[in-house]
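chain below, 457 aa
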Amino acid sequence: MPKTLIEPFRIKSIEPIRVTTREQRQGFLEEAHLNVFNLRAEDVLLDWLTDSGTGAMSAEQWAAIMRGDESYAGAPSFFRLQAVVREITGMAHLIPTHQGRAAEKILFTSACKSGQIVPNNCHFDTTRANLEYLGVDARDLVISEGLQPATIHPFKGNIDLARLEALLKAEGERIPFGMLTVTNNTGGGQPVSMANIRACSELLHAYGKPLVMDVCRFAENAMFIKLREPGFEHLSPLEIAQQMFSYADAATMSAKKDGMVNIGGFIVLRKDEWLERVRQLLILWEGYPTYGGLAGRDLDALAVGLKEGLNEDYLRYRLRTAEYLGEKLEALGIGFVKPTGGHAVYIDARTVLPDMPREHYPAWALCNALYIEGGIRGVEVGSVMFGKRLDDGSETYHSMELVRLAFPRRMYTQSHFDYAAEVIAEVKAAASSIRGVRIVKQPKQLRHFTSEFAWVD
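prediction:
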């Protein structure tokens, strides 16, 4: 077979992209207060802000939508999804929600109280915010390699087991459960090995603590295990995923990622411990237990999408897409999180803007520059997203300054990635002219979504 890895699908329907000029984009960004979240989608050329809910659904999923049953209680759509989720996770209880952050809110409210600690490899933005809103300390314990963009390690998403055990020994009474995020979004979409998942589970269980996994990209993690961890090369992604879930007691999922749908999420529970409280909060905040926050048609589309997301040909192509852009960046001398993750490429802004002070938010500045130069919308994963302004006016800063280019599933072709590489090269060549920013307005939590900025003079 040829070495070129083609898209394992044909395009059946298209959506036009509006081409804008550099001058227009400068104006659009100014109107958006220098925050790409505030841009109109029609003014974006390549929208790589997120892979969450932005992909294309398949013909089979659209057919499943027509099967959707909208009965308020006991719809067959729920039971079709439940059967698929049980096959993949092995867990008895499915609680559907409208998306992942709703699943987090419901589970954390059921299982946590103020003053507790939840360890994780890395919490992503809404996970951390939902815990901190409850007064819980969201503690990141990723291995040291996970904080070093240029360091090569096959499983940079692994949790540091020694630090986890030290925390359990010192403050175990304050820990309601431990978490693992697979793949580790904050750290570059990096996978967690099966050995690390198993060891984390065993360690938590030895201290009487459940393991909760954030599994929005579980299929990509399973494929990384197949490709990188000895002993798994002959197993299917489904079989690997089933083993991953076997070590967990519960999981939350934003199905808008590896569920291959535009809306949806869920909680799965192995035991009854949190079930009654979770269901009552679901009814209060989302809907009845057999639909949660979703229409019946969405449940059916998700049932199909979960299986399609585990297709090996698709996953091989998916991981290769990020790897391809990474190779382009490597040739340009631009740093990024290595090896490339499953859903995105994370540019290390400090390699493009080495002289920009961190108080000028280099990753945010680079994100703006990519939009102005080529209409590419990425997202900052740095000190705006994970830093904080303290009560005394001082700032905390993140350990990395990354720009995440997250790729919607089954949406873009190779020429889009070639174009992106050219834009990134042009931005690097003009790095000395890129301006930093300062925050002029921000909320207390999740400030990257709505903060307003001004150029640094």
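The chain has a mean pLDDT of 96. Residues 60 and 432 are 49 Å apart (CA to CA).
thats it, cya
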